[in-house]
Backbone:
């Protein structure tokens, strides 16, 4: 059964890419299946847990609720595209330094949302609320928020707290 | 290096300043790959020709299966196989201890989510679409949903033999029913909990013809998965290889349950000859996988005017759901944990495990202890109140300590017993005295309260499961001086890879970065039992120390030859083999490794640890259920909106008796996570069950804490030189969870001046408990006075 396909062109992690996907394809599946970027995770498929968050034109979105076709002509950044070569994004580096990573399944989504928070320069009192769309069951969020505060103030943490 | 050599009894602070790995904050072994999304979970693995599995499940909690029609499912495009119970080559059985649970239903449905048929298709969408087309004719049967009612012989039977699965008891002292100046009687309804690991259950089965099979699974217990798959396929254990995939959270939810999806994927792989991956959708995962047991706990406790406990009677009923799973083991722990770390001269505990047609009860962080602890700590507060004593002071008078250290089972606790230390440290951190010195909370609807929770946790498998309490390790010194470590216990986020790396580095005197601990694989190490009971780091660690001891029998003579000293003079530290007492004479461990390779000396050693055999009499509940114990105390400060019933946990002070800290970031992370998960269980995480069906199987309707709910957490890490695991370390995974909800409950009740004996303490329960004390009770009274008037909400609800 030949399925209809639509062409989706997007700037993905800094590179212009085009994919031919079924019209109902989720952006999450385009990223994981078609682009091979498995860093973005699926935790619920309903936009509730935040494990699949990516940046769409700089804004964090749950990619399980975005149709791939609607990303046509837009820019998408995934967890794989946040760092610069071997250099991690300051929030990724801070998470590692502060021990803010446990099972790691929520981490990619958390990292992407955190990067957006850092980019917008939200004050520390805003961090917890803005991160509330990313569920984490391991860390109790304490070291995650410490890491975010470190990344947001531009200090590179040495892990001491 | 022996775990109890003089060096290991040096203070942790001294070791830290010496730059040794132990007790430090080195980067966690798995953090960088996880933070960049490079870690591949099982859902990220794919193979050419791989098929996707789906399950057809029962929508009713109790029914007879009279017909099963798979024709429509088979006719779906992209479907490769649809299998039913008749296709199972081995036994149709997945029960981990008892033979009461089939992999696929043959005649009787006992819970919503029971599996009827399995589908393999070329895409996940096609597989689930076909699974929905499996037609089952189900004839509804009477069901039982109340665990206490289930024990009535007249109730519908979930299994032929009746609904009482097991009874556990503790009998100690006389004078039951006891005499006391004050007596508290209560019935606590303690709800269950969903694990809500962020990674759903999943596995990948890769067959090699019908000769053997590899399972890559998100799981805590690869050896359980191995046994289940071997049994279902009729294969010897050696023909089933289970490799643990990086596991995105477990908390007990990936202890016994992953055997079920693994057996499903294995069966489909066996039939199709192709790799099969199964990832459970969140809704089915929440419905069908195991849950923390709901329990009903009845108390009759007495105390004297001197503030000492006189007796305690506890009757607990666990809701096991439709299959035993490991509910009896949970019941064993609930039974001996029923009175917490207190000294009670006379005691009678009855713990019964009941079948129902509800959600499947299983392992969850704390393993039966949190529910009974929640009840015990509530009763302690009530007794203190009745005696006119400060809850802190009342606990001080009754805690076990170094002199008074006989546990409820008659076991003498190993010294030091640090309950008082933990209580005082947590109370000090929380500012208990200052808070109570501050008179009169701000008036109005916002009320503040402080509450205490204490827990005593046995850091091993219970006596009943001690045959499983052993662990295996393999240490391989590479020719370049780096070290490969294999252990049989898993990393699921708790930090076992990091703990094992730290222990290996400490024992071999090398940089942690030189040590790579790989995920467990059943072909690499011997059966090490389950990764549960907070035993991962200490059992793996003791097995590693044993392996290092054996490796040094080969390494030390080579080092001695290079150094020109005697073998027994060789010391390992800082990446060097040196001569004891002569810091200048040393050679890099890497050089010793190269020399071993050049001389073809075996660079691999195995290690093994088993706990000491203990005596315990199940008839009376007396003896030594566990080898050693950890104490934990949490003090929670809450703000409660008495109008809306909303609870905000502002701060938790947590003091933990950890023996020795192996890795501070991992240790603190466990406590933070345990506290927040405990707050969720205690306040918002309500499993709404409607005739066996979970009515809120999503993160929108089942509320786990978010970053915005996390309190300030203050920690006191209490270290000591007592009995424990490697270097004296004790488990932290579960002690971090157990007291949290109890502390929150007591804080809420203190804030409001009412008793709430149902968990979770949701806003409607708070408003209901306040009754006439609710700020708007006068308005309700006014409406009641007018018989024709109706509240808008009651009218709408009709």
Residues:
């Amino acid at each position: 059964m030949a399925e209809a396909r639509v062409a989706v062109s997007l700037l993905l992690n800094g590179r212009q890419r085009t994919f031919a996907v079924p019209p109902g394809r989720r952006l999450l599946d385009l990223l994981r299946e078609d682009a091979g970027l498995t860093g973005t995770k699926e935790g619920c498929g309903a936009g509730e847990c935040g494990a699949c968050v990516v940046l769409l034109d700089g804004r964090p979105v749950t990619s399980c609720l975005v149709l791939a076709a609607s990303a046509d002509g837009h820019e998408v950044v995934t967890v794989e595209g946040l760092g610069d070569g071997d250099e991690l994004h300051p929030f990724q580096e801070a998470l590692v330094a502060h021990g803010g990573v446990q099972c790691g399944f929520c981490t990619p989504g958390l990292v992407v949302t955190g990067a957006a928070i850092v980019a917008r320069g939200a004050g520390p009192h805003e961090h917890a609320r803005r991160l509330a769309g990313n569920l984490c069951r391991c860390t109790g969020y304490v070291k995650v928020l410490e890491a975010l505060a470190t990344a947001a103030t531009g200090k590179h943490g040495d892990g001491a707290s | 290096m022996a775990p109890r050599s003089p060096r290991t009894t040096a203070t942790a602070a001294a070791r830290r300043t010496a730059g040794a790995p132990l007790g430090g904050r080195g980067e966690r072994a798995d953090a960088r790959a996880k933070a960049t999304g490079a870690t591949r979970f099982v859902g990220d693995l794919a193979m050419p020709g791989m098929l996707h599995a789906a399950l057809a499940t029962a929508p009713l909690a109790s029914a007879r299966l009279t017909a099963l029609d798979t024709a429509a499912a088979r006719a779906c495009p992209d479907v490769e196989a649809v299998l039913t119970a008749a296709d199972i080559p081995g036994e149709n059985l997945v029960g981990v201890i008892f033979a009461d649970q089939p992999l696929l239903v043959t005649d009787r449905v006992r819970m919503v989510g029971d599996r009827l048929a399995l589908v393999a298709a070329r895409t996940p969408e096609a597989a689930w679409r076909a699974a929905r087309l499996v037609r089952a004719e189900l004839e509804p049967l009477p069901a039982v949903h109340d665990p206490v009612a289930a024990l009535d012989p007249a109730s519908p039977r979930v299994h032929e033999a009746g609904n009482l699965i097991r009874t556990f008891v503790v009998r100690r002292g006389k004078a039951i029913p006891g005499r006391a100046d004050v007596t508290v009687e209560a019935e606590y309804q303690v709800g269950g909990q969903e694990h809500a690991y962020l990674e759903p259950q999943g596995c990948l089965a890769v067959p090699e013809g019908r000769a053997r099979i590899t399972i890559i699974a998100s799981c805590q217990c690869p050896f359980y998965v191995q046994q289940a798959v071997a049994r279902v396929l009729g294969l010897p254990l050696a023909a089933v290889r289970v490799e643990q995939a990086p596991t995105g959270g477990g908390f007990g939810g990936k202890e016994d349950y992953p055997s079920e999806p693994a057996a499903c994927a294995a069966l489909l792989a066996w039939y199709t000859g192709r790799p099969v991956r199964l990832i459970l959708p969140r809704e089915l995962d929440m419905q069908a996988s195991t849950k923390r047991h709901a329990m009903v706990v009845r108390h009759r406790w007495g105390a004297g005017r001197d503030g000492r406990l006189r007796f305690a009677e506890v009757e607990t009923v666990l809701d096991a759901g439709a299959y035993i799973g490991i509910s009896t083991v949970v019941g064993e722990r609930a039974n001996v944990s029923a009175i917490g770390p207190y000294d009670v001269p006379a005691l009678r505990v009855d713990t019964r495990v009941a079948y129902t047609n509800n959600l499947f009860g299983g392992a969850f962080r704390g393993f039966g202890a949190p529910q009974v602890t929640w009840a015990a700590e509530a009763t302690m507060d009530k007794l203190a109140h009745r005696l006119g004593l400060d809850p802190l002071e009342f606990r001080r008078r009754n805690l076990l300590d170094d002199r008074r250290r006989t546990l409820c089972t008659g076991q003498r606790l190993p010294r030091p017993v640090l309950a008082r230390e933990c209580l005082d440290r947590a109370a000090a951190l929380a500012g208990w005295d200052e808070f109570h010195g501050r008179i009169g909370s701000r008036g109005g609807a916002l009320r503040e309260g402080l509450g205490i929770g204490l827990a005593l946790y046995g850091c091993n498998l219970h006596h009943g499961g001690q045959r499983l309490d052993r662990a295996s390790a393999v240490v391989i010194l590479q020719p370049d001086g780096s070290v490969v470590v294999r252990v049989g216990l898993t990393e699921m986020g708790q930090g076992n890879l990091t703990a094992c790396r730290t222990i290996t580095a400490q024992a071999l005197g090398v940089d942690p970065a030189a040590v790579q601990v790989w995920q467990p694989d059943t072909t690499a190490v011997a059966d090490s039992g389950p990764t549960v009971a907070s035993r991962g780091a200490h059992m793996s660690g003791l097995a590693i120390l044993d392996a290092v001891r054996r490796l040094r029998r080969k390494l030390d003579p080579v080092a001695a030859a290079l150094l020109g000293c005697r073998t027994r003079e060789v010391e390992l530290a800082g990446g060097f083999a040196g001569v004891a007492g002569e810091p200048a004479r040393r050679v890099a461990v890497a050089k010793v490794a190269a020399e071993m390779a050049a001389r073809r000396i075996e660079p691999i050693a195995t290690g093994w640890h088993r706990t000491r055999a203990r005596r315990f009499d199940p008839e009376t509940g007396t003896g030594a259920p566990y080898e050693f114990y950890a104490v934990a105390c949490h003090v929670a400060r809450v703000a409660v909106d008495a109008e809306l019933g909303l609870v905000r946990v502002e701060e938790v002070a947590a003091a933990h008796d950890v023996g020795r800290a192996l890795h501070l970031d991992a240790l603190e992370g466990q406590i933070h996570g345990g506290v927040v998960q405990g707050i969720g269980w205690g306040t918002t995480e309500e499993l709404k069950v409607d005739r066996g069906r979970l009515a809120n199987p999503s993160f929108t309707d089942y509320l786990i804490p978010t970053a915005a709910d996390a309190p300030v957490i203050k920690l006191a890490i209490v270290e000591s030189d007592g009995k424990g695991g490697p270097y004296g370390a004790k488990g932290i995974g579960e002690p971090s969870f157990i007291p949290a909800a109890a502390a929150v409950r007591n804080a809420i009740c203190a804030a409001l001046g009412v008793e709430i004996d149902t968990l979770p303490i949701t806003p409607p329960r708070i408003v209901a408990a306040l009754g006439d004390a609710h700020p708007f009770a006068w308005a309700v009274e006014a409406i009641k006075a007018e018989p024709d008037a109706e509240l808008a909400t009651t009218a709408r609800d009709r």
About this structure: Chain B touches chain A through 58 residues (CB under 8 Å).
